[in-house]
Specification:
Elements lengths: L19 H7 L8 H20 L3 H17 L5 H24 L5 H17 L4 H19 L8 H17 L3 H4 L2 H19 L6 H23 L7 H11 L1 H17 L7 H15 L10 H7 L7 H18 L19 H14 L1 H23 L6 H10 L7 H25 L6 H8 L2 H6 L3 H20 L6 H21 L2 H4 L3 H19 L5 H26 L5 H30 L7 H19 L21 H13 L6 H12 L1
């Protein structure tokens, strides 16, 4: 029977226990500490302060440190070329933002209108992608700061200093590039190989689904790194061609993994440990960048050759796939595998994608809706502080900007976490402002506080807020010398900003608290039906590979959306929890389809066209039902052909399970187990 897989959902046991969505939001995420980024943050934010004090202009040093703070927040990429985009591009928009803000400082309602317009542009930019989102964030943040704080010196000095601080972070991040060029990309590809080895280890166990999700995430990261670099390198770069070929060589191994899982689960035929060991040997070779010209490069092929003789379809498929990967790594001429170069699709040139993104933003209803939401909240914040005397009122709009980022997570939970994180950060800030005198003591304090930002960012938004708050207050105090007088107003401003966001940016927009879960799943199910039709037809193998990768990537995005929805308060969070098993069921349908295709390729009897059409019809019917459902409705698969020995039988079982999940009666077992898991 198909396995049940659901996220662990803690439940309140007493009236004094925090609600489930808050517990999930506050739970620290498990992630390694980026020690290199921690060291860069310490140097990049303390050095400008030291130079400013040395020059007798501590306010200049504080502005440069503010720019460095933006660079530290954006310092998240592994590949060096991506660091340029992640740090430098947002800095340019940040410089533009502080310039616009400075020009309208003190101009009353003109400043309100200007900042509101910038908020509209910033919100629309945020729908393009990750770099554009951070760029839009800095554009608005710095505009708010420029419009709310008097900047020292000429109008051009503040953007120059802040940009210089951000570029200092970039310079420190690129210091090792000449010595480690290509290392992050190779490490990412090697990590994908290791995740596939872990997937093979998990075949036939209850951890298989989790391992498969990890493979999808790892492949997404690797392809993003390699192909993003490739779009800027239009020549036949041997290193890039080799990396793309190595990633593509993983495709047959991943396709064979579901067949191995089925064999281990239903026929009790476990994979020999030599198979994942061979894949790990390939991963080591990729990470070291070995070539056939060096003696150790022959080791992967030898390791693969020691795989025991295959005994069934799944073992034969894996045997061929691993040997193919070993041969790809051992190819002395990377251009010799150029035929596989475009198997998963060559990305468009950067200028083409930029033009396409700009057109989509202008014509997208979602882009305009988010831009208008952000502009409304910023306009209300700016208008409120213009009418009511709020000291250093720019903090209200800053809070709105940080919280109202749906692409960063749930707006509701971010508002709550922002308030809690600010309160925690203010405790640290109060101690610093009360006990640390201005001057050279600011430098060691900054060296201690700044590294907490990248260290705690990986733990969650609330923890990041708690780390950023004392840093911003210390820099603000250097600029305006208010001392402890900053603490209470900042807490009040944060609460006002969170309140504006919750009312004007969340409750007034039904799409914020009523996620379109059914539509997203329906699209995925319909695409899965088309993949089934393609997998057992006469289509091109490369087209099938692209379709399968695209489906897994889409399901990864849907998983992320569900994780965001789970942090929402009822009814959104509880509804997402009820629909979660169907997401897992769709992933298993993909696995079963791929496994059937692999078995056919290695000798199994292919299905008849009517069998394929029947499965596709059931999936299209499920998609149609989901489009018209707000809650899960009753449904069951109606297969007329009852051939138990068909290669599609495991696939039909998974489709039947998916139809059973999407029903209040037939899915009672899964739903009951879900309730039991939440109660535990």
């Amino acid at each position: 029977m198909p396995r049940e897989s659901r996220p662990a959902l803690p439940v309140s046991l007493s009236p004094l226990t925090p609600p489930d969505w808050l517990v999930r939001s506050l739970k620290p995420q498990s992630a390694p500490i980026p020690w290199a980024a921690v060291a860069r943050a310490s140097v990049a934010m303390a050095l400008p302060l030291a130079l400013g004090i040395l020059a007798g202009q501590p306010s200049y040093g504080a502005l440069a440190s503010m720019g460095a703070l933006s660079g530290v927040i954006g310092d998240t990429a592994d590949a060096y070329r991506m660091r340029i985009f992640n740090i430098a591009v947002p800095q340019l928009f940040g410089a533009l933002g502080v310039t616009l803000g400075s020009l309208v400082f003190g101009h009353g309602w003109v400043a309100v209108g200007a900042v509101t317009f910038v908020a509209l542009v910033s919100g629309m930019m945020s729908t393009i992608g990750a770099v554009a989102s951070v760029s839009g964030l800095l554009l608005l943040l710095n505009c708010v700061v420029g419009a709310g704080l008097p900047m020292p010196g000429q109008w051009w000095l503040a953007p120059l200093l802040m940009t210089g601080g951000g570029l200092l972070v970039l310079t420190l991040a690129l210091l090792a590039w000449p010595l480690r060029s290509g290392v992050p990309e190779r490490a990412a590809v090697a990590a994908s190989y290791r995740s596939v080895a872990a997937l093979l280890d998990a075949a036939g166990t209850d951890t298989y689904d989790e391992a498969r999700t990890a493979v999808t995430a790892s492949l997404n990261q690797s392809y993003d790194l390699v192909l993003a670099r490739r779009t800027r390198d239009h020549g036949r770069n041997a290193e890039l061609v080799r990396l793309v070929a190595q990633l593509n060589a993983l495709t047959p191994v991943i396709e064979a993994a579901p067949a191995a899982d089925q064999a281990a689960r239903h026929a009790c035929v476990r994979l020999p440990p030599e198979v994942p060991a061979a894949v790990r040997a390939l991963a080591d070779a990729v990470e070291r960048g070995e070539t056939p010209r060096t003696e150790p490069a022959e080791a992967p092929a030898r390791a693969a050759a020691r795989i025991p003789e295959p005994q069934d379809h799944a073992a034969r498929a894996l045997d061929h796939a691993v040997l193919h990967a070993a041969e790809t790594l051992a190819d002395p001429d990377p251009l010799g595998v150029i035929g596989t170069d475009d198997r998963l699709g060559r990305p468009a040139a950067l200028r083409v994608r930029a033009r396409r993104a700009a057109r989509n933003v202008v014509l997208s209803g979602a882009s305009w809706r988010y831009g208008l939401r952000l502009a409304l909240c910023i306009g209300l914040a700016q208008s409120l502080v213009s009418i009511i005397d709020v000291p250093r009122s720019y903090w209200v709009a800053l809070t709105v900007t940080f919280v109202l980022k749906p692409d960063f997570g749930s707006v509701f939970s971010r508002a709550v976490l922002r308030a809690l994180g600010t309160a925690a950060g203010l405790v640290v800030a109060a101690a610093v402002l009360a006990e640390v005198p201005h001057g050279w003591w600011d430098v060691p304090v900054m060296m201690v506080l700044a590294p907490l930002i990248p260290a705690l960012t990986t733990r969650g938004y609330g923890y990041q807020t708690a780390a950023i708050t004392p840093v911003i207050l210390l820099l603000s105090d250097i600029l305006n010398h208010q001392g402890l007088g900053l603490v209470v107003p900042r807490l009040v401003d944060s609460l006002i900003g969170c309140g504006i966001t919750l009312v004007a940016g969340y409750l007034l927009w039904p799409e914020s608290w009523g996620t379109r879960i059914g539509d997203r799943l329906a699209d995925a199910v319909a695409d899965t039906a088309r993949y089934v039709e393609c997998a057992f037809g006469d289509g091109d193998a490369a087209a099938r590979a692209r379709m399968r990768r695209g489906l897994y990537r889409d399901l990864s995005v849907i998983r992320s959306e569900f994780q965001r929805a789970l942090t929402e308060p009822p009814p959104t969070g509880t509804r997402a929890a009820a629909w979660w098993p169907l997401v897992v069921a769709v992933e298993r349908i993909l696995d079963a389809t791929t496994a059937a295709r692999v078995r056919i390729r290695h000798g199994a009897e292919p299905p008849t066209p009517s069998e394929v059409a029947e499965v596709a019809r059931e999936l299209h019917g499920l998609a149609a039902r989901l489009r018209t459902s707000v809650t899960l409705e009753k449904g069951h698969a109606d297969f007329t052909d009852d051939a138990q020995d068909s290669v599609l039988e495991p696939l039909r079982q998974e489709v039947s399970a998916a139809r059973a999940v999407a029903s209040p009666q037939g899915g009672q077992k899964g739903r009951g187990e879900l309730r039991n898991s939440t109660a535990g």
